[in-house]
Amino acid sequence: MDLPQKFIQRMKIQLKEEWKDYLQIFNEPYSSGLRVNTLKISPQKFKQIAPFQLEPISWCKEGFYYQKNVFPAKHPYHHAGLYYLQEPSAMAPGAILDIEPGDIVLDLCAAPGGKSTHLGARLNNQGVLISNDISPTRGKALLKNIELFGIRNAVILSETPEKLSTFFPEYFTKIIVDAPCSGEGMFRKDPSAIKNWENYGAEYCCPLQKNILDNAAAMLKPDGLLLYSTCTFSPEENEGIIENFLKCHPEFNIVPIPLIKGFSKGKPDWVNGRKDLENTVRLWPYKLKGEGHFIALLKKNNYKIKSASFNFYKNSSSIRNKQQDNENLNEFYCFINEVIKDPSLLQGNIQLIGQQVFLVPDGIPSLKGIRVLRSGWYLGELKKKRFEPSQGFAMGLTKESVNQVIDFSVNDTQVIRYLKGETIEIKGNAGWNLVCVEGYPLGWGKIQNGRLKNKYLSSWRWM
Fold this sequence. Notes:
Shape: globular
Low-confidence stretches: 314-325
Number of strands: 23
Strand content: 25-35%
Mean pLDDT: 94
Largest sheet: 10 strands, mixed
Radius of gyration: 23 Å
Oligomer: single chain
Number of helices: 15
CATH class of the largest domain: Alpha Beta
Helix content: 25-40%
CATH topology of the largest domain: Rossmann fold
Structural class: alpha+beta
């Protein structure tokens, strides 16, 4: 591989005798990983049913390596949202931030959704996850992955950090900034990253990173945690950014990250920085089975909180109260009464936005004036005096939460036919059914006259 000369010269000086170890990685294949969706299945159970061999990833309890000769993206379990395909080192930030159910979490640079799906699963549909990406185009992939995982308490935005900081002053308990960077840690896995490095190196990325972190700081509550990560080796974008941030934000301090096997200390001497920058971590691809990463964990000290006011959505105490209050949702409630076994699953803040029905997480400020891709759990759309349930609604349910289920064996050829959008001859009760594979939801279907009318989302179909 032809590495840029400027990169080679710098890395030789910084790595010294380890430079040869780094070069050797380009003669070895990169490692592939998947992360189990604990909203749907435990890592232990998934390992039992997985159709391919798995090896645990030491820094992520939900993570596994898989072999190069298998294709987990082309398996019904992937379409059921049982796992997310993710580079192993990229699982470390979500594991280190230590999300707990009930946290109010922001993923500020979220697309395509690797970190957000990790955080959302750990929230266990309790609390709030706001996933933001400044690019609406990249936000489409983020939206799909959030819905595929069945995350019910997520709001998906596409805004600048500056604008978000005016809407959410000191609102979040935990924030993750997986910052845009020069991508040096990805050179082996993605050779096109070299070209991007030549056009968008540290000189381009550092001002962006500084601005993002400054705005993230304004949105974090006192005693909250802020995790900063990159996939580059550049000290200017790593220790240098944190050094500068701490000078500008003395209310923050570095939280030491445990050095598990393969992790290395940060390098304060590379930026003539403060000694406690050693408490950040670097992941080197010649020291572990993964690509290059940098992670810093910061805590906002408990100082006098600034007064912040929010205009909140009005909460509804139950689905029944909402049913009485809003005749526009009659078709929706008829569907719920017919299809859903336990309506308390939808207890909370039901919102009709246009003709689309959402369950909005409690405690969300008004989003008026922000570019919103999803206002919460998208349940479906009102169409000509009927309610059409969404793909995301199906993915957030369980087999036990509906009245009628079509449950295919994973080896049944009908599964692939369903995922391809085909109509299927089938026996079963007429009406709406949740279509599953081995008990895990894939989408909706409607049985009429012995045929399953396929409601699997067309943009998700098996190709």
